[in-house]
Design brief:
Elements lengths: L10 H53 L1 H12 L7 H19 L2 E7 L3 E3 L2 E12 L1 H12 L6 E9 L8 E12 L2
Antiparallel strand pairs: 1-3, 2-3, 3-5, 4-5
Amino acid sequence: MAFINLEKLLPRERALLGIGCLVILLAVGNWTVVRSLYSRLSMLSAKISDDRARLEQNYLIIAKVDEVKTKFDSIKAYVPKAPAAKATDALSTEVEQMAASCGVTLLDRKPQESVRVGFFERSCVRFEMTGDRDGLARLLWRTESSPQLLRVSKMQILRNTKAGAAPLKATMYITAIAQAP
């Protein structure tokens, strides 16, 4: 490997060598430092624009707080203020009436454990029933469109194998919401 003897170089050659070393040093600095800073800056810029968009959405949500409160107060009137046992009884009574009007026969009902969700308590009852396809469909539709906020959370329909029985056997888990005491 040959070393450059700076003493033998002319001042003009020394200046060119210095400029060449400076250019190489700047190129390496650009490659390592400046590009990493630029990529970090562009990543932060993208994060800032995402956060700004999220902030604007949050401002829109905050602006609708009063509207949401009034809707909540209007819906709150439909939710009964009752302990879980009364809510379960009311749920069972309403489903029994709907099933009778739809031509569905209730075989069994089993109250499930109530779950507290925030200010509300969710009661669930497991119903076993038999009926034809149209009757079960009407019952499902009437349950989902009930003003008491009833929902079918799980449903299983099987073909009934008993002779002389209704063609379908169904199991429905129907939930209702009540204000927690």
